[in-house]
Amino acid sequence: MVHSLPLPLEICVDSAEGLAVAESAGADRVELCAALPLGGLTPGPGLIAAARAAQVPCHAMIRPRPGDFLFEDADLRSCLDDIAAIRAAGLAGVVIGAAGPDARLDLRALEAMITAAGPMQVTLHRVFDLTPDPFEALEQAIGLGITRILTSGQAPAAPDGIALLKALAQRADRRIEIMAGGGVMAEAAAALIATGVNALHSSCSTPAPLRQPAERIGIAPSRDTNKNSILALRAAMRTSEEVV
User: How far is CA 232 from CA 9, 71, 76, 187, 192, in A?
Assistant: First the structure.
């Protein structure tokens, strides 16, 4: 499988500090979220403002609530309003996803969000990994004009989805980008790059102890973007790409 080198590395963050760390460690792109422990939600105005000042392209998650990706009309309106705000802020892209009760892509909702995004790049998030027919979903995403698909190869983590990632990259044949994400660390870089995917995606985060006794009121610890993890992943990618 032939792909462009070097492969981009996207880092997902949910704080202004994480954004600064990702940028300083050489991330090629940032996925901007709130509440990564919940799978990522739409970031707030403060984090969006920090992204506007960053030198790295930032793509904002559009997900109005935790839970599943079955969006009612009120959810979709929230998504469209959030996309309008992201577009007005001048960010590089949005990350979207919606599915019906059968877990197939909700083409009506996705088309509305893509239209609202206008010239911004659009990434289809891991709702793709729930679809019963990934090759059908791949063709639908291409038909919608989506820029890239973030996928673990429908496995809990990308290193476990190698076979499908390779098949998706082959089927996509440069018509859409395939970005491997989910459990991506330095030790997995070589195997993932060998599938022919177009980019890697990782949080490169480590547990962050609470600095206040907030667990007494039910606050769970968070995770911090780790610069050394990003640098290690980038180094592993560079070594792997030299032998591709």
Answer: 12, 38, 39, 9, 15
Write the DSSP string, 119-139.
TSEEEE-GGGGG-S-HHHHHH
pLDDT-derived band at 244, boundaries 50, 70, 90: low
- The H helix count followed by the E strand count for the chain is 8, 10
Domains along the chain? 9-242 (3.20.20.380)
Residue 20: how many CB atoms within 10 A of its CB?
Answer: 17
Q: Are 161 and 155 in contact (CB under 8 A)?
A: yes
Look up the pTM and report it: 0.95
pLDDT digit string (tens) for 113-142? Answer: 999 999 999 999 999 999 999 999 999 999
